[in-house]
Amino acid sequence: MIELSNITKRFGENEVLSGISLSLPEGSVTALIGPSGGGKSTLLRTINLLEVPTSGTLAIGDATVTLTEGGRLSRGQIQSIRQQTGMVFQNFQLFPHRTAIENVMESLVTVQNWPAAKARERAMSLLEKVGMAHKADAWPATLSGGQQQRIAIARALAPSPKVLLCDEPTSALDPELAAEVVDVLAQLAREGTTMVMATHDLRLASQIAERVVVLESGGVVETGPARQVFDAPERERTKRFIATLK
Ligand code: ADP
Ligand code: MG
């Protein structure tokens, strides 16, 4: 249901993604791992077109865009892909001047033109799902990092995206708060949410992901079922990298 074909991204002379092809079935959970600078964030950002690939084809649900060198995408094409994705960032990035529930309602009201009452109802049910309904009217700055991230997850899910993209969702959190976030993501995975997560958090990756993709210097160097990649990686270098996460 998500298909990346030969996605390349260059920043000037620097080729950051070198012909990535991946196919992510509906309901699958994929962990992107690999050394810093390998291209994990850039890959996630190309899936929702926060970064436009230099070339390649991206298909999500029934939207497909193909980039050729020097080509551009229309606003409509970008929207057709972006509407189908939700993104969670390492540093939460909640709107500081909006309450928890207003953060979750925002895109429904401003992008999808939902009436406020209906948006509030959906936002409240999402806050319940992430265990944050009791903080619906709180300001982000008064909440712990784990609470803020759970609200950010609810916000990303509000428009019912086809895929939830998470860029190191637990990296900014102490272990106890990270565990709250892992629990929420694990629950979403059990419910069949399609997810792609870049992470250095072995617990997150090994508890939730079915599939692991190892990205190094802009290329996929190893991929397979999570068990296999974690317990018996094909490459010596992957084995050494995984050892650094433990
Ligand atoms: P990771 O998330 O795996 O640490 P990134 O995707 O952040 O890797 O970075 C991959 C490479 O792309 C790095 O060399 C980084 O410096 C470069 N890069 C990322 N974003 C930009 C940008 N906006 N402009 C120029 N170079 C970038
Ligand atoms: Mg990154």
From TrEMBL:
Single annotated GO MF: ATP binding
Membrane topology term: Peripheral membrane protein
SUPFAM superfamilies, per database record: P-loop containing nucleoside triphosphate hydrolases (SSF52540)
Domain ABC transporter as annotated: residue spans: 2-242
Keyword annotations of the record: ATP-binding, Cell membrane, Membrane, Nucleotide-binding, Transport
PROSITE patterns, A to Z: ABC_TRANSPORTER_1 (PS00211), ABC_TRANSPORTER_2 (PS50893)
Pfam families in UniProt: ABC_tran
InterPro entries membership: AAA+_ATPase, ABC_ATPase_HisP-typ, ABC_transporter-like_ATP-bd, ABC_transporter-like_CS, MetN_ABC_transporter-like, P-loop_NTPase
Primary subcellular site in the record, as a coarse category: membrane
Keyword ATP-binding: yes
Subcellular location, record wording: Cell membrane
Family per similarity comment: Belongs to the ABC transporter superfamily.
Protein's name according to its UniProt entry: ATP-binding protein
The species this protein was found in: Thioclava nitratireducens
